[in-house]
Design goal:
This protein is an alpha+beta fold. The protein is built from twelve helices and nine strands. A hairpin with an 8-residue loop joins strand 2 and strand 3.
Length: 309
């Protein structure tokens, strides 16, 4: 991306690019697919219990995009539910396409699984919206999981929104990953889309969390800290003076270092002493040679001993 393009980008997208939130699409895709494949079993069980006839569920695709894409929906017949969790207000965004709405409604009202149905192309009726709300609730329960891998979704989840309400919904944009599930019978098919922020997809759960996989981000930011610049200060002890002598000092006055002046200097950064060093000169340049790490306890003891003499 050119510098001009970066400067004209949305600030949040620029920050994501700089800190690497979307810099590893292969890793995000792999994590999302792993999550999707683990959920196939619970999803299939949920669909089997929800519908009066057999239907197949498969993970059709994993798509990377942005959360804004979820709300840019032209159809008025595709309900969306935003489910929050203990870690995020938008942990799961579950939507059902118009074909899936028609399929669910037909099967629940006695339609034959061998006969195809046309996708709805109008706003949902109250009955259709209610069916979708129940179905999405069950899907969220299946995806939430249990035990150490649970996503900690807050139930009951919100009611679905569609049409203008979906398009006008306020949201927090950011990089996302979408699991596309295909729900099919011999007569037709529809799709359920589950979108998550990439930070949720990459969050360690279960054995991964115990193994410290989440430390990768700590290591990344730790590296940034180690590359940050700080100012070093070397303080040279000049000797001892009375308070009267110090009070008499004037601008321009030269203070000589006696031959008995300590040759040690303290190297410090951000007001924290780091090393005890030796002050010297190499050619025309003054030098500070590291002697040993600064020991605050030893310094305290030396000060106490000196004061007691």
């Amino acid at each position: 991306m050119s510098a001009a393009a970066l400067m004209s980008s949305d600030p949040s997208a620029l920050v994501e690019r700089l800190v690497g939130a979307t810099a590893e699409p292969a890793k995000v895709s792999a994590a999302a697919r792993s999550l999707g494949e683990r959920s196939i079993g619970p999803m299939a069980t949920t669909v089997e219990e929800f519908l009066p006839v057999a239907a197949e569920v498969e993970l059709e695709d994993v798509e990377l995009g942005r959360i804004a894409d979820v709300f840019a929906c032209d159809s008025d017949a595709e309900p969306l539910t935003i489910a929050s969790s203990a870690h995020s207000p938008d942990a799961l965004m579950i939507s059902v396409d118009a074909a899936a709405v028609s399929l669910l409604t037909s099967l629940l009202f006695g339609g034959s699984p061998l006969v195809g149905v046309s996708p709805i192309n109008r706003p949902l009726s109250q009955v259709e919206a209610g069916i979708c709300a129940l179905f999405i609730q069950r899907i969220a329960e299946a995806l939430n999981g249990a035990g150490t891998r649970a996503m900690h979704v807050r139930f009951p989840i919100a009611q679905p929104i569609s049409g203008d309400e979906r398009r006008k919904q306020a949201f927090r944009d950011g990089p996302s990953a979408t699991l596309v599930y295909r729900l099919s019978t011999p007569g037709g098919e529809g799709r359920v889309r589950v979108t998550m922020p990439q930070r949720i997809v990459l969050a360690p759960r279960g054995d991964d969390a115990k193994a410290g996989v989440g430390n990768e981000w700590q290591a990344r930011f730790g590296g940034e800290v180690m590359r940050s610049m700080v100012t070093l200060k070397a303080t040279v002890p000049l000797g001892r003076m009375t308070l009267g002598d110090i009070a008499a000092l004037q601008p321009g006055q030269v203070i000589e270092m006696s031959a008995e002046a300590p040759g040690e200097t303290r190297l410090a950064a951000k007001d924290k002493t780091l090393f005890v060093c030796e002050f010297g000169k190499l050619g025309q340049n003054y030098t500070v040679r590291i002697k040993e790490p600064f020991n605050a306890e030893a310094e305290l003891m030396n000060g106490l001993l000196a004061g007691g003499r």
